[in-house]
SusD family protein
Amino acid sequence: MKNKKIYLFLSMLLAFTVLGCDDVLDTKLDDEIPAATAITDNISLKAAAVGLYDVMQSGTYYGGEFILAQELTGGNADATGFQERFTQLDNAIVPPSNAYIQSNWVNVYTLVNASNLILQKMEELQLKDDNSKGTALFCRALGHFDALRQFGQFTDPNSKYGIPVSTKYLDAKSALEVSRSTVAQSYQQIISDLKEAVAILKYDSNRFFITKAAAEALLARVYLYQGDYDNAILYANKVISNSTYKLNTKYNDIYDVEGSAEAILELQFLGIDGNSLTEFLSVSPPEVSADYSSFFKPMDDDNDPRSYKYYDSGKEVYCDKYGTRDSEIDGNAIIIKLSEIYLIRAEALAKKDPQNLTLALSDLNVVRQRSLPAQPYTLADVPNLDAFVNILIEENKRELGFEGHQWFTLVRLGKATSILNIPAFRTTYPIPQNEITISRGKLEQNPGY
């Protein structure tokens, strides 16, 4: 983030591996400022809120592997290097010992715990700052949501296999006492936090910080995943009707122009705090490449400009969305963009009224015809909901490729088992085994693992 100052307490928060091993939790840092006393006034409060973006930038969160994991497991990407964790994700056979899920679990709960610290200290000290509070609520919701859609049975509202939900700042001892909530309870907390954030945040044209519109956009996404299509449409409408945001004329401007008109929330990286995506995507050979036959070739055959951010070397297909050299580490991560909101509304409209796909198809074509103006889908192409789902998956794949969505799209639409040829239990990642062990039975593993 530009012009940001991260106070020393953030070092402690970054090292604070929530629900991680006792040795790490008990580590004392030199000249450590205890996290519980780091926020003392509005100045340190604002610094803490800015620090949440730094947590999101972690190398196994939005700074890299969280994005790659969903592309690998979802079939958009191939593991073409020698990293075992990527090979396991590529095969959609993810063991509880997988290195990525162990690290990402820590990341998402570090974001949750850092947000809880801010909210707790604001209440204790009676500090007033709507932007800081709204940012913390958004980040707590995002952390919980990213945990739920990876480690919980998020498509089953009646499932007991949700995630640990934490609304209090946890130390090493109290972290071990948090058990799993149900899926319904998990969604309830996520939605409650986002609604509160919407109520206190303001609209702002800044794309690099959390705003009211960003919270509305995330609510649309969460409601879609929950299966509440009316509310998904409601919040998508709010974002689409907001004149601050519009689709870029050229699809690739979202990557080539920082903070473009289409970006709703863009996680900004600089050379001093860069992302790790090109470290895996741009080395030769790449550790992770774009799948040729099912992902790149159909786009290339259509001369779809969305294929222009991929380079076919004849051996592997490189993804260039974040840079073309491994030394380029300042490519931003797109957390939410307007084209996704159109696709969210299209899916919600189709699921709400599968007998009348006209409006859903219109939204889908807004996205498709930006890239392929002469190739809209027609009602003849979608005689039923299943046909619509198939083209929706293809448009999601092209529009949101290598942005961390494909796995969740397949699972949400009930296509992961058939397309990827995996058993149903593998549509949910396992809880990391070290977390199961450390919890001493408090955390129950997902079925099948």
Observations:
- The beta strands are 77-79, 263-267, 288-290, 310-312, 317-319, 333-337.
- Residues 99-125 form the longest helix (27 residues).
- Confidence is low (pLDDT under 50) at residues 1-33.
- The chain is about 50% helix and 5% strand.
